[in-house]
Predict the structure.
Amino acid sequence: MDQIINHAVLSLDFWQDTVTYEGSTMPTGTIGCEVLNIPDSTIEKLDTPCNVLNRLLQGMNTGSVDMELLPQVQQAAGEIISFLQATPPFSHLDRGYFEQKLAVIFSEESMEDAKVYLQLTQPEQLVCALTGQHGKATLLVRVAQVLGHLSYSLRQYKEALTKFAERLNEPGYDRTPDGYAAMFGQFFRSEPTLSLENPSWMTLTNASVQYVSATRPGKMEPQLVKRMHYVSFVGMFRSDLFEGLCVGHAPKKCPICGRWFLTIDARHTKYCGGLAPGDQRGRTCRQIGNLRGREQRELADDHPIKAIYTRRMNTILQSTRRGKLDEETAAAMKKLAKDKMLRALSDQRYASTVYEREMTQQALLEAVQKK
């Protein structure tokens, strides 16, 4: 079966508080949070190519295929791929692979196969899905639906979930799993409807779940992961966002750049680790924020990132006093530890993945010895 129709592109692996997508592992909620930062103007540019695919779909819904649309459809698919490559979280996808696949999917051969396929009855089409007959046609219909509805779905996602994120972003709000659950219950009604005034339909995700033994990126041993397959990108995004809330991860808006970033603990992290707009020295929002005075600094000395650094400084000092480390090696280890701590403060993904492992005394010693 082809990777696309097999839903590999529309699948997430959840393990503890992380999610793996297309070979990248990150804190759960990262993907759904990144979508909140897609500008409305960017989504608006998608309308034109999506409308072309929707014209193709409209014909298919009546059992016909307009072959004259093929050049426009091919161009539209290329424009959408360019958008995906340049826009997180879609940028995790392998552009070369999908350009090659879309050239086959949106081809004259696939369109001709669709002509025959669409004349079949629904039971006959179901048999084709199970047996692999008319595979080119079924893949064409599936991908056209996913890409054709993309701009509309992204707009609906942002409208509903940005309002929810803004509620979570209110000053003094309890940023814990319990607090998120309480706000979720207030914002989303228990009886979902399709009304725009009641966005509870966003809590519904058309997905299938399986449990598999998988080796995650950067790991040697397999873990038992929950693999979820989705029928649309947007269903995948909101599922990731809500799974993040379950483990205490939630979006927060940076007051300096205005972008959403993910917090992974209950502390009141104020600033993101991205570059501050307009800063000629290339400093991050976090660095700028920490210059605004002690009362506005986001990280206390006992913050987990700094606590790891402080413990390591203490153990290096003890090892030096006991003669287990010479002064030169100890100084190099301290400098390396400080560099890693500063990186963790400005890089949320690094802080939540390999930071603690790289800050063990043995890891620091081995790194210094290699240098």
Notes: Residues 213 and 339 are 36 Å apart (CA to CA). Residues 1-7 have pLDDT under 50 and may be disordered.
